[in-house]
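FAQ: What does the model actually see?

It sees only this:
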Amino acid sequence: MSAGNTKTYDVVGVGANSVDFVYRLPGSPIADSPTAKMRITSYSVSCGGQMATALSACAAFGLRTAYIGAMGTDDNGRRIHAELAGRGIDLSHVVTRQGANQFAVITVDERTGERIVLWDRDERLLLADDEVPGDLIASARLVHVDDVDEGAALRAATLAREAGVPSTSDFDRVTERTPELIAAVSMPIFAEHVLPAITGESDYERALIKLRRTHAGMLCLTLGPRGSMMLVGDDLVIEPGFPVSAVDTTGAGDVFRAGFITAFLSGAAPRAILRFANAAAALSCTRAGALNGVPTLAEVQRLMAEAPTLR
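And it is asked to produce this:
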């Protein structure tokens, strides 16, 4: 962080948290096939959720973080609160709702690390627009939002823009409000399946160029193990992923966003931003769990130093 910076936080995040019940399986279940029934290889309970994972990674990379979100009063709510607090994330603006916290049942194919997520969230956990404090948003160097509570995310991104604070996003679905939220965020980051659905273009480069007509900021797309790409002005930057043996891909996209944020705030060039984010995401796939898969800054730097630069 640069000397003389008076901001209270490096990153303020607005979005979801979850407690994950993870089942590792010897394959991927397919109905009416020999894999329709299979024995569970192992089982664990860990914490995750888009924003909780992204902020945990930002904290691991040395950034000062604050979380705006809702938690339940059950055991899962207490578990996620203790986990995030233990990672040094400021939880003073968390809203507590009576009842169950968000949770997910995740199956992981131990051969490939690919996962399927089945989740549930009590509607009472919805974060209202007016529960996003403007002074906290203005106190950040960057604001990160996901698309779970769209109204709250839109308010946070709008407040950030008004305060001259850059913002990033986690777009994992398409709804009626998605275009509005994209317009509000200064640096939208899309999951691979989202951009074609938004633009009607199956070619990623054409999709980004089409979106450029209405959005002047950096436009980023994650491509899983293949890496990522970003449109900066009229320049398309493509950075390949890091080859690793995947154990569990849960949370990789969230860790990518944390890597993007960390490199951006350090003043890195666009290609270096993507390379750092790709390395962070790749490392997260080499261990089980979302928060448990978050790498350290030293591990990311080591992978970048050891891996060849591919073009």
